[in-house]
Amino acid sequence: MYEKNSQIPKSCRLCEPATKVTIRADTVFGGKIEHNFWQCRNCDAIYLYPIPSIEEEAYFYKKEFEKFMAKRSGVERDWSNIKDHIHTNQDQVERRWRFLEKYLWPKMDLLEIGCSSGFMLNAFRDYEIYCTGIEPSGKFLEFLRQNKYIAYESLDELESMEHEKGFDIIVHFFVFEHIRDPFGFLKRTLKLLKTGGRMVAEIPCVNDPLTSLYRIPAFEKFYWSIAHHYYYSPKSLSYVLDKLGLNYELFPEQRYDLSNHIMWMMEGKPGGQGKFNHVFSQKLIKQYKKDLKEKWLCDTIFVVINKD
Q1: How far, in Å, CA of 87 to CA of 79, rounded?
Q2: pLDDT per residue of the chain (308 residues) written in tens, 0 to 9
Q3: Phi and psi of 297, rounded to 5°?
């Protein structure tokens, strides 16, 4: 039975059958009463419906995104000003670098899509990589250009500049779930890669233990965001990539630690990363993340796509 406020989708947004859809989440952070996340039992896609208009979405990212994210962030992430945003994301730089470094070398051409304040671009530039960015936020985009980055507001703008030489690598972190047409997005961006180049992305995994294993009510109200078109599992992500015939690998990743999960259980709110490190051994902390990743009950997926 669907709630009276539910607008039932006519078909799955990924695989298009008209049946086999159920509500996965009926509370959408930042959404309206009619918004739900629906799950397709065929391809495992979890998608937002009804869908915000293109105009609404463009205004949101240009004018409202930072304020929206400030409401969702725990104490370890600061969206109040750009310098603090860069500073409080250095742990993300270090974590991602451990995965990325095998794909990087000096003087390569890199494009980051959705580069926000440029905290990852700074690390790439320090490694002597030639960097280009795409960022729809007016506030962040202005800052990037002031800091001498080649930065564009949109993929459309970049394509209009006819970047003929192409890129050795394209990266994006927590962007793909915001994309309304994942097939079109991948087709367009992969054209920007040189032959032999690769795309590396980090994407939230809907197998996050806080929703798939523990099912904490406060987290359910927080997790499902109006900013996201999709939430991906390994199965639904593979469906998209296989349909395009891509050469890819998926890697499980776990961002948040045992302390963060305990904080959600205790107080029902974000934050808490490292809070109990004075109690837990490093061996336990690492093993907890390792166990989650091995069972694919993790909060993040790294995907590497190779352009043959």
Answers
A1: 10
A2: 455 456 888 889 999 776 688 999 999 999 999 999 999 999 999 999 999 999 999 898 888 888 888 887 766 677 788 999 999 999 999 999 999 999 999 999 999 999 999 999 999 999 999 999 999 988 899 999 999 999 999 999 999 876 567 999 999 999 999 999 999 999 999 999 999 999 999 999 999 999 999 989 999 999 999 999 999 999 999 999 999 999 999 999 999 999 999 999 999 998 899 999 999 999 999 999 999 999 999 999 999 999 98
A3: -100, 55
Provide the edge-to-edge strand list for the sheet that holds 130-134: 150-152, 130-134, 109-113, 167-173, 193-204, 300-306, 247-253
Tokens 């298009």 belong to residue: 16
Characterise 271 by phi-psi region: left (phi > 0), alpha (psi -120 to 50), beta (else).
left
Stated pTM of the model: 0.93
**Backbone phi and psi for residue 230, each to the nearest 5 degrees, phi listed first:** -140, 155
> Which H or E run contains 148?
none
Q: How far apart are CA 170 and CA 106, in angstroms?
A: 15
Domain ranges of the chain: 54-210+235-306
Burial class (CB in 10 A: 0-12, 13-18, 19+), 60: middle
Contact (Cβ atoms closer than 8 angstroms) between residue 169 and residue 198: yes
Which architecture, in CATH terms, is 54-210+235-306?
A: 3-Layer(aba) Sandwich (3.40)
8 Å CB contact between 127 and 100: no
Whether the Cβ atoms of residue 45 and residue 12 lie closer than 8 Å to each other: yes
HEC sequence for 119-141 = HHHHHHHHCCCEEEEECCCHHHH
- Sign of the torsion formed by the C-alpha atoms of 80, 85, 206 and 52: positive
275: which residues sit within 8 A by CB, 6+ positions away? Answer: 259, 260, 262, 263
